[in-house]
User: What shape does this take?
Amino acid sequence: MRTTTWYAEPTVGVIGRARQLAQVERLLRRRARVVTVTGPPGAGKSTVAAVAATRPGREVYAERLQLSCAEVQEPEAVPHAVANALRAPDDRTLGRLQTVMDARESRSLLLVLHDCDHLIDGVTELVNAVTGRCRGVDFLISARQPLRVPGERVVVLPPLAPAAAPALFTAVARVTVPPVPSRPPAACDQAVVAEVCERLDRLPLAVELAARSLSHMSLEQLVQLVRTCCLTLGAHLPLPDGRPLHHATLTDAIGWSHELCTPPQRLLWARLSAFDGGFTTAEAAARCADELLTPAAVADGTAQLHERSLLLTDRSGAGRTRYRMLRTVRAYGATMLRYLGEAGQPGSRAAGHPPEIGHE
Assistant: This one.
């Protein structure tokens, strides 16, 4: 585990996130014990958490420590990694977790943990143990799912607003792409940028990767790429310092979530990608259930994919919950559906019209 030097430039990385930043900051100032920032792949969770952690003054927290858990492999190693980062004494007569708690018992500390999706059980155990013993230690977590611990407050990051995404695109392009003399942005360019952002679900990571791609392609080439093969965004770009490997490309970001799913969840994800629009749990079961996924497994799996921020929800007029996939998440599922050989098969439970990569 390492101290994080986060990769997002604050004034750019938080464009369109003023409301969520204020919400997290307000919770920290009120000393909420556990605040978890969640959202779909590429929503900017770590950026929002990193920036929000710097806002409260020393009257709230005497110390702050931001850590990336990307290099920790096992949930059982989380307490040891945190103890090492806090430079807690290695007292062999005590467990390292107890050492961490004893060392911080009388101090106000905000412990910020990023990239811990693969360590949810270990992080949950750590948070429960520390908050139960150390009143001065609070947690700010960025993850794709809540921890479900007592007292947890969850802040969900949705896709950016329609006006904010193009603003982020323009801001990133100005910082990373050499300016072209005597070429002010035309109305047609703005329309193309808006299309690019919409096809990328207005997700900050995807929008940023698209804007940085202008360093080696034209805007016309970029829009063609997102229309046909959006998941390859970032493939030819250098990885900024401090950025985790699973944020190098859009495929990596979504694939990180795919790897953390169970095999039944992956199969259901692929089959649900065949829906052209939203769906209820009953509609999902009618299309996706078979001898591999029972109707009960489809219902449970749908809820689990929503928990992992891979499905969004809308309320219908009848009060029923309808689920939907973002275009990018759906495109990834469509590749899996084709890999499984189920896409478009006559009589297949998942037969439908899965999107081409980049299309809905």
Confidence is low (pLDDT under 50) at residues 1-8, 346-360. The chain has 15 helices and eight strands. The beta strands are 2-3, 34-38, 63-68, 109-114, 137-142, 152-156, 312-315, 321-324.
